[in-house]
Structure formats: structure tokens, C-alpha cells
Design goal:
By secondary structure, the chain is an alpha+beta fold. It has four helices and five strands, in the order αβαββαββα. The protein has a five-stranded antiparallel β-sheet.
């Protein structure tokens, strides 16, 4: 199944299901997936600057789009953080790349998690969902032999859904394996 088919699947299969489930009168009321944001907070980067470069390369491999470093907004003495110091990496995926990433996440990466029983179904109150992943090695693009440190990441699915129930239904139909 290619990425165009996931977008097509949304229009052909998911939209009618959501319209029936929530009683929408027009297709424009159906929630859409607008973007997927991958974020990696790297507190250890304060001591070692190479961690940011490695994380950027890995995140770029995983997403297929160049990752950018995020910087601190203010000084925090207790954490030895200075203003504008790189402390994380993030990528925002939209359009074709977003659907391609979603496909790989659901079909390849999530099933590779050890003792996987599904993901929690806790939404944010506005129809968006954030999934925390503890190890980046679940993605097949990452070569396990070159890993120096296991790093987790947050994957946020941003939808146009006004409520959690609608956002949950959309992501469930896209194939995210929620716990029963």
C-alpha cells in the first residue's frame, strides 16, 4: 500500500464511517489529520553537543525530512542551561510525508515494540493525540549497530477534530492500535 492509497483510504473509507458515526451532514465537517510532529527533548545535550547532531541525523532518517534543533528560551541555572542553547530536535510532517510516516509507524514500527499490547487512548481534550516512544530503534531506518544511546520521542497527531471522541475515531480508523 503506497502513501497515496492511505490518503485515498481516508476519502473512500474513513470519511463515510465518521459521517455515519457522528451524523455529519457534509464531508467538510469530518475531522482531518493536519500534521504529525516528532519531538525529541535532549536534556543530556547540555553536556555533550554531539548528541544534538546524532539526534538530528536519526530524526531526519526516520521522518524523511530535515530535523531542526530546538533551543531553550531562557537561562535555567539548576539544569546548566543557557538561553538559545540547543536542547532538542523536532520535525513537522504534512501532506504526503505525513501519510507515508503514519503508514510506516502503524505497519512497521509499532509492531516491533517488545511486549506490545496497544497504545493508550488518552487524548488532549482538543482531538489531538501524543504518543510517547521510549526507543528510536523500533524504526527500521535506524541501524542498531551505530546507536550510542537509546533516546525516546513524542509523536503528536494534530487533527481538526473539535472533540476527543471524534479525534479518537479518526486515528482509530487510520489504524493506530489503541488498547481495548
Amino acid at each position: 500500500m503506497n502513501t497515496a492509497s492511505l490518503k485515498q483510504d481516508y476519502q473512500d473509507r474513513i470519511v463515510p464511517i465518521l459521517m455515519k458515526e457522528f451524523g455529519y451532514t457534509t464531508v467538510m465537517q469530518c475531522p482531518k489529520l493536519t500534521k504529525i510532529v516528532l519531538n525529541q527533548g535532549l536534556g543530556d545535550a547540555v553536556a555533550d553537543k554531539k548528541i544534538i547532531d546524532v539526534a538530528q541525523q536519526e530524526m531526519t532518517l526516520i521522518s524523511g525530512q530535515k530535523a531542526v534543533a530546538t533551543v531553550s528560551k531562557k537561562d535555567i541555572a539548576n539544569f546548566k542551561v543557557r538561553k538559545k542553547m540547543p536542547i532538542g530536535v523536532r520535525v513537522t510532517l504534512r501532506g504526503e510525508r505525513m501519510y507515508e510516516f503514519l503508514e510506516r509507524l502503524v505497519r512497521v514500527a509499532l509492531p516491533r515494540i517488545r511486549d506490545f499490547r496497544g497504545i493508550n487512548s488518552k487524548m488532549d481534550g482538543r482531538g489531538n493525540y501524543t504518543l510517547g516512544i521510549t526507543e528510536q530503534i523500533i524504526f527500521p531506518e535506524i541501524n542498531i549497530d551505530t546507536i550510542t544511546k537509546l533516546m525516546g520521542m513524542n509523536i503528536t497527531f494534530v487533527t481538526t477534530a473539535p472533540t476527543d471522541a471524534e479525534g479518537f475515531a479518526l486515528l482509530r480508523e487510520f489504524g493506530l492500535p489503541f488498547k481495548k
